[in-house]
Specification:
544 residues; alpha+beta; five-stranded mixed β-sheet; 21 helices; 15 strands; 39% helix; globular
């Protein structure tokens, strides 16, 4: 990953927060690399994916469906241990990852990590970096040929097929078809997630699933709005949304409505597609949508009105989360995963409450929410590891144990009495638990997200309510599962000038009329080649 790619991460944050960053995966990073043109698409499509076998675990209080996640009002009593043998081989296993919170204490001062190593049967040595710094760290480790046993391949990594072919172990023989049944919690991951792990005609990774969990809309501080007498914010159009943002801003008191310019939310109001749309085999970039310039102009009006924290354009995700928890901002464009994380990091005390806005149509009616990227990342196995692949797959399987199991309870909450207290059957974390468990295990592998928050049964109810409302209207990135070599090699480079132009328009430093010329330059610099390659890959997979 070069400087262009790292700069692209910053641009994506400025253009709309979590949804933009999540989109980086489907825009030619991990998810966009499962197939490619030139005949490879058909080769990859022929790979037999792991056979899905849903784990018959705890019955949900709030049953979901193929899109809406299952919800649980409490943790089941007497959770069962489902893996009886430690998965490790007794020798250290290395892993590198990003983490969303503060860097936790090292294993020598971390009771959770120490107990984890005992349960795994191998010491897990983790090299960590913040979300904002991980791309740089990953690029440095790749360049130095200094990769761990288990590798968290981050979003927007360039030329993933070549990277994996050179550095990673193919896993097809262990995971394809019924072979995955040796790892029942990996078999519990639906096929759609495995599609993003196929490269070079092989399964090369373990998926860390997200999809609906990573769908991003405005999270808001329900308690702050209630204090202003706003109990059910539901703007019916852009103007009402604008007025609400103005009402929640008081610059003299260091309070703003937004942690970042909500460009992607405005785009969803305008029914602009998520990265790429496809119809009849023809692909169209969101950049080309006739209302894209209108979205930038509308966002410019929000910035001009002063409703966005002025530090948003120089700060990263960690700062945004601190502003939200600290009450400096009322809105943050982020996901269901972040929703729960905010409660874990709550500094506001009693009464803290979060909810999520639906997306209206720009002039009224209903907007078109974007389905979150299928994967957070994939985890690859280093081709030079001294561990048997089966051992590392057992580790991944242990990490994917689903909600309701004893393994899940420990992995997410730690040890009773040290890291959490039981309220009924609910494990309510203490401060030590929040800090010590935040070592990034969820990025080795993970179960599909369960809607649950210990001690807060109202949260999964709110979460499923909004998921049910948006599910029929979700729009997915049409390039998922398709690979464009141009996008992988040049995507960040050609996106750079266009995204810089977007920021300049939002800040009022360029006229919105400049957008059309910017898109033409983007198409000429490689956008048209990306379109052609996606269309060819689509044809290779689907025939025609």
């Amino acid at each position: 990953m070069d400087a262009h790619m790292r700069k692209e991460f910053t641009r994506r944050r400025l253009l709309g927060g979590g949804a933009a960053l999540a989109g980086a995966i489907g825009a030619g990073g991990l998810v966009g690399c499962s197939t490619s043109g030139g005949g490879e698409a058909a080769v990859n499509a022929a790979v037999k994916l792991p056979a899905y076998q849903r784990f018959a675990g705890v019955k949900p209080d709030l049953p979901g469906d193929e899109t809406v996640l299952d919800g649980y009002l409490g943790y089941p009593e007497d959770p069962k241990q489902t893996i009886t043998e430690a998965p490790g081989d007794g020798t250290p296993i290395t892993f590198m990852t990003n983490i969303p919170g503060a860097i936790p204490p090292p294993v020598s001062d971390n009771a959770f990590w120490t107990e984890l190593n005992k349960r795994l049967g191998s010491p897990l040595e983790i090299s960590m970096a913040s979300n904002d710094e991980y791309a740089d760290k990953f690029a440095t480790r790749v360049a130095g040929n200094d990769l761990p046993d288990l590798i968290n391949i981050p979003p927007a990594t360039a030329q993933v097929p070549g990277l994996l072919k050179a550095k990673a172990r193919a896993l097809t023989e262990f995971l394809s078809g019924d072979a995955v049944q040796a790892y029942p919690f990996l078999a519990n991951l639906p096929e759609v997630y495995w599609r993003g792990c196929v490269f070079n005609g092989e399964i090369y990774g373990i998926p860390v699933p997200r999809g609906m969990a990573r769908t991003s809309l405005p999270l808001y501080r329900e308690d702050l709005l209630a204090a202003k007498g706003i109990k059910d914010p539901a703007p019916k159009n852009f103007q009402e949304f604008f007025d609400l943002s103005v009402e929640l801003t008081d610059q003299r008191s260091n309070r703003w409505a937004w942690s970042t310019a909500p460009t992607n939310y405005v785009k969803q109001m305008l029914a602009i597609p998520y990265l790429w749309a496809e119809e009849g085999g023809t692909f169209t970039s969101a950049n080309e949508h006739p209302r894209s310039a209108e979205a930038l102009e509308a966002t410019r009006k929000l910035v001009e009105a002063g409703v966005v924290n002025p530090d948003a354009f120089t700060s990263g995700a960690s700062a945004r989360k601190q502003w939200f928890n600290g009450g400096i901002v009322s809105f943050d464009l982020d996901s269901f995963v972040a929703w729960n994380q905010y409660y874990a990091d709550n500094t506001a005390g009693e009464g803290f409450a979060v909810n999520m806005l639906d997306v209206p149509g720009f002039e009224g009616g209903e907007g078109t929410p974007w389905l979150g990227a299928a994967l957070n990342n994939i985890t690859a196995i280093n081709a030079e590891t001294k561990h048997a692949p089966e051992t590392l797959l057992k580790i991944a399987n242990w990490m994917a144990a689903p909600f309701g199991t004893q393994e899940y309870l420990f992995r997410k909450y730690g040890v009773e009495g040290q890291h959490y207290a039981l309220e009924g059957a609910d494990p309510v974390p203490n401060k030590i638990g929040v800090v010590e468990t935040g070592i990034g295990l969820q990025y080795i592998s993970d179960a599909p997200m369960a809607l649950y928050l210990a001690g807060h049964p109202e949260v999964p109810e709110k979460q499923q309510k909004i998921q049910q409302a948006i599910a029929p209207r979700l729009v997915a990135n049409a390039s998922y599962g398709l690979y464009s070599d141009t996008l992988s090699k040049k995507g960040a480079i050609i996106d750079g000038p266009l995204n810089d132009l977007s920021i300049q328009i939002i800040l009022g430093k360029q006229p919105v009329s400049a957008w059309d010329a910017g898109v033409k330059d983007w198409l000429a610099a490689g956008g048209e080649d990306i379109r052609s390659e996606l269309q060819q890959a689509h044809t290779d997979v689907n025939g025609g």
